[in-house]
Amino acid sequence: MNKDNKFYITTAIAYTSRKPHIGNAYDIVLADMIARYKKMQGFDVYLMTGSDEHGQKIEEYANKAGITPKEYVDKISSEIKEVWNSLDTDYDKFIRTTDDYHEKTIQKIFKKLYDQGDIYKGTYNGKYCVPCESFFTPSQLIDGKCPDCGREVIDAKEEAYFLKLSKYQEKLKKFYEDNPDFIQPVSRRNEMINNFIKPGLSDLCVSRSTFKWGIPVDFDPEHVVYVWIDALSNYITGIGFDCEDNSKQFDKLWPADLHVIGKDIVRFHTIYWPIILMALGLPLPKQVLGHPWVLVGDDKMSKSKGNVIYADYLSKKFSPDAVRYYLLSEIPFTQDGTITYESFITKFNSDLANTLGNLVNRSIAMTNKYFSGVAKKPNKFNDLDNDLVNCANESIKKYYECMDIYHNADACEAIMTLAKRCNKYIDETTPWSLAKDEANSDLLNSVLYNLLECIRIIALMLSPIMPKSSESILEQLSTKEKTIEFGIQAEYKVGTPTPLFARIDAEKVLKEIEEETKPKETAENTVTLEQISIEDFAKIELKTAKIINCEPIPKAKKLLKLTLNDGTSTPRIVASGIAKWYNPEDLIGRTVIVVSNLLPAKLCGVESNGMILAADCGDDVKVIFTDNIPEGSKVR
User: Model-level pTM greater than 0.85?
Assistant: First the structure.
């Protein structure tokens, strides 16, 4: 490998608490796209991904499942690989933080930092979020809850080792100043400077003693190495860093050219990780890309909310390329993107079936029909031809500009702009009319050549985004020409047109999805809830409330928006998943029981303040009505 030509790219390693959903999969799809694009440009690329397998949360999940933590993470890590593979990602290495070499090197790193005084022993006393595995001071909490995930935190007091972040604060600040492109997008850089660097860094807890599922601190076995040194260091242990005798691969690959991560862990990768590297005397990564989230409507995906969409399910239902295209075209560079089954199908039909698939199919079919599959490069171009060529050149230029700075959604738009222009060009030139007169043979040949040449360019630009579809298009064109420039191919001898994307019957497929994704109640997944005390029950406030208005929620087929009179002066809004069983007009005027002290939750753009009581009756749901009881009455 030529070090000057190498490109080492990583994803954040996926946490092995649960099977990854479509939002978790965006990391690897984005990184794979970048890796493929860099290979197109001649770079010697190395892409590493993996799984993060230690921590208190995993220990708790394993205990609940009645298996060892190692058995638990083996299962989830295998599922992560299956999801990644279902998306046709082509990574070079999958690291697991339970790999023997990783654990041994982490112990060496911890000992080295301790011996040189960058890690010291102390006592932690503050707030801790178990799901995020993060410590916070009371002032960092938002409404008394975790600032990252909004969940409850617990009091934590334990002996721990700490990393001296404060020691490296000025050095890190200077690095930011000297490397303004280190953090992308710029908004993430500003967050780090304003929210963490300027207020001053607190030393970081890097060991735990209240659970055992972690890498032991070899000189103090009561402690395990905490997640940040363990997980973050995978980027160097996975390529052969050893503290004493680094591998040739490490010497060639490090520093990383790009870390691809979610915006929620930018702090760890641009503050904690650079300081760990500074303490180790290693160069810092060249760039960290903190991409936005993939939301369902306006919400984060959550099993508890029942809105999780899985990438491997979508890939099997539609195709890996369709999933890749949706993610890469619908998630902007700086803002969160959204996905629903409805929006996925709409995008599929519009861009892939109607625009791209239709263009490829009819252009090749017409070449076969009118010229026995052969179209030659024309000697002259008219105004319509020149307009198409100009559009192709502009699309190519924009594509490169966007891909170079990882604006993948804009790059996809540039490709589709050319595809749409090609379809318009067909309408303008009407090849079927030209074919009626032998005198128009040269003109018809020009039209078909121009279309085929644009389709070749589209296929090549799509290759990092939709690799299998790109390959299929080029095979149908019978071309191996890889130059993204109009007019390179002398002639085409096309093959048989093969449909790329069949249009989806949205109503039919959405019904299939609803049936296929409906939770199935089995003895294996039935949960027996623990008993609660009368004090616990007393925390729940139940009140009667009259439904004074009811309406559907756009783009949310399962939800109805209820406006309730609960005896107070202000109407209460509740979003309820009962649309399948009730029409809005049948509910107005009815009285229901509402959980009135439930935390507000935003569902498909509606802030829901409560939950109404209903009974599961097999495949049916029946709301519990109390029409003979005045609204505002407390239910005990």
Answer: no
